[in-house]
Design goal:
Strand content: 15-25%
Number of helices: 6
CATH topology: Oxidized Rhodanese, domain 1
Organism: Winogradskyella pelagia
Helix content: 25-40%
Number of domains: 1
Structural class: alpha/beta
Protein name: Rhodanese-like domain-containing protein
InterPro entries: GlpE_sulfurtransferase, Rhodanese-like_dom, Rhodanese-like_dom_sf
CATH class: Alpha Beta
Shape: globular
Strand order of the largest sheet: 1-5-4-2-3
Order of helices and strands: HEHEHEHEHEH
Number of strands: 5
Domain Rhodanese: 31-113
Pfam families: Rhodanese
Oligomer: single chain
Length: 113
């Protein structure tokens, strides 16, 4: 065991359910059609402009879990927020509740436009 691994512990295993996509990869997948795409920003952020066909489920909403439970866990889900922080946290939550194919937009919508 190296000095650093004894200090910081073993590396956490990388998630197999969550894939971070570049804006180009994300755009290509989104344009393919029949997908679940979720904008986890606030309603006012969503109204200021969102990706076509994106459903808005506010990360800070008290109904967050209820809304995600309505989605199909067996289908891939695409997530984004403003900069990538909320969507990353959402992806981890979704993995914990059983989603197996989660795609997160690297850098959020700021990086997408």
């Amino acid at each position: 065991m190296s000095f650093f691994s004894s200090l910081f512990g073993p590396k956490k295993s990388k998630s197999t359910a969550i894939t971070l996509l570049s804006p180009e990869e994300f755009r290509e997948k989104v344009n393919q059609g029949d997908i679940q795409i979720v904008d986890v920003r606030t309603p006012s952020e969503y109204k200021s402009g969102h990706i076509k066909n994106a459903q808005n489920i506010d990360f800070f909403s008290g109904k967050f879990n209820v809304e995600f439970n309505k989605l199909d866990m067996a289908k891939p889900i695409y997530l984004y927020c403003r900069s990538g922080n909320r969507s990353r946290q959402t992806a981890k939550k979704l993995e914990n509740i059983g989603f197996t194919e989660i795609y997160d937009l690297k850098g959020g919508i700021l990086n997408y436009k």
